[in-house]
């Protein structure tokens, strides 16, 4: 048995997770409602923002809507099991060149859900039920990312080689005054369209997303963002042929790069 001092130190360690954990997000896919609620309580105690879903399909919807720093998934679930979910996440990462999010298998039967099957599906580690808070803390300490450097608010976006300079725009439109007037109006419209696009993406509305992208493509053509313009057109086609769910990862990258471009233009 642990001495009272050792037990006290252990409780203090669990009650004081690393400060940067409050900026991280964990996704849990678990079909058993009681166990799902318990995992939510554990993660809350550890100061982690988390999303709880009941099957692999719902997990993919969650991943399409936001980025997670860790995924914990039961292996056997209805609708879509943990293996199919993990393979789908790895395909999305590979297609976009994204970093590998850790996926941890949660199982009550290692005879059926053997480690090799987990590895083959793209999972990184596995835990046996029932799981304790201390075991979860140890897992998170190993697999969650460490503190990251956060860019200063208002720091200028890095200019891509294809983005126009102020001199380029003056040459294109004739004078600095014309450029300033044009940018002021177009940036207001583009930012409004970006906000509408973010809303459409969150509710997975394909028609509204296409409308926003059409308007933004027009603005980008005017602002000289030829590479982003081409990507916007390709996204419209992708959404029409593959649907919103499979297009959301590409859309997220586009929105991130577009925001950086508009920030760059605003300080020209």
From TrEMBL:
Instruction: Output the superkingdom of the source species.
Output: Bacteria
Swiss-Prot/TrEMBL keywords = Phosphoprotein
The record's annotation in SMART domains points to: REC
Gene3D superfamilies recorded for this chain? Answer: 3.40.50.2300
Which residues does the UniProt record annotate as the domain Response regulatory? 25-144
4-aspartylphosphate, modified sites: 74
According to its UniProt record, what is one Pfam family this protein matches?
Response_reg
Record keywords: Lipid biosynthesis included?
Answer: no
Query: By its UniProt entry, which InterPro entries does this protein fall under?
Result: CheY-like_superfamily, HPT_dom_sf, Sig_transdc_resp-reg_receiver
User: Carries keyword Phosphoprotein?
Assistant: yes
UniProt name for this protein: Response regulator
């Amino acid at each position: 048995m642990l001495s009272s001092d050792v037990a006290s130190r252990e409780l203090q360690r669990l009650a004081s997770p690393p400060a940067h954990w409050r900026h991280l997000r964990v996704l849990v896919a678990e079909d058993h409602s009681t166990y799902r609620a318990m995992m939510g309580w554990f993660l809350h105690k550890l100061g982690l923002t988390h999303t709880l879903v009941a099957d692999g399909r719902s997990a993919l919807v969650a991943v399409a809507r936001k980025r997670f720093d860790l995924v914990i998934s039961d292996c056997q679930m209805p609708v879509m099991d943990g293996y199919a979910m993990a393979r789908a996440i790895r395909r999305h990462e590979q297609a976009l060149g994204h970093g590998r999010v850790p996926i941890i298998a949660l199982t009550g039967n290692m005879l059926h859900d053997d480690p090799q099957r987990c590895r083959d599906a793209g999972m990184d580690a596995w835990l046996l039920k029932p799981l304790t808070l201390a075991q979860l803390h140890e897992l998170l300490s190993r697999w969650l990312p460490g503190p990251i450097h956060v860019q200063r608010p208002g720091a200028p976006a890095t200019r891509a080689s294809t983005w126009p300079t102020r001199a380029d725009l003056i040459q294109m439109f004739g004078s600095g005054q014309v450029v300033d007037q044009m940018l002021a109006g177009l940036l207001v419209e583009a930012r409004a369209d970006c906000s509408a696009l973010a809303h459409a993406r969150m509710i997975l509305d394909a028609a509204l997303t296409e409308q926003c992208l059409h308007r933004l493509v027009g603005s980008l053509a005017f602002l000289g963002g030829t590479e982003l313009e081409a990507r916007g057109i390709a996204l419209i086609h992708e959404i029409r042929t593959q649907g919103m769910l499979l297009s959301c990862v590409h859309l997220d990258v586009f929105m991130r790069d577009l925001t950086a471009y508009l920030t760059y233009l605003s300080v020209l």
